Here is the input.
Amino acid sequence: DIVTTKEFSNFRLKLEWKISPGGNSGIFYLGKDNAKWPAIYYTAPEMQVLDNERHPDARAGKDGNRQAGSLYDLIPAVPQNAKPVGEWNEVEIEVYQGSVWHRQNGKTVVEYHLWTDAWNELVKDSKFPGLNPDWANVAKSGVIALQDHGNDVWFRNIKILVTD
Here is the structure.
């Protein structure tokens, strides 16, 4: 994974990505990279990066919540507007005082609020408590990471605006 050395709390992350045929990757935020949880997915929410046409994860999960742009395994991206393999997708992840927006190709596709009863219910019914029983307690600040999931993926025009 490519992980920032600095932690962020309130920010707007903008970048472009494209994925290889059958590829899978992700953009993580508010993560803690430490010895207890050495992989970022143990602690951080993820905006999914995926070839929705070929990768089986696009058909797994619930209601498309593992497709590109989604809050992985929790909230599907609506509308599902990822471009086909080989084309660049523009995304923005905005975090402000626990409110989070995923924007993909000019549209808000996910909006949610951390540290609420609704958040806790959402996480309880997902796969994350099996990975880390404290996963719902996402940190108020953390690192940003671009995932190495073993497939070719490209990122460019990466910009982070701190909004504290």
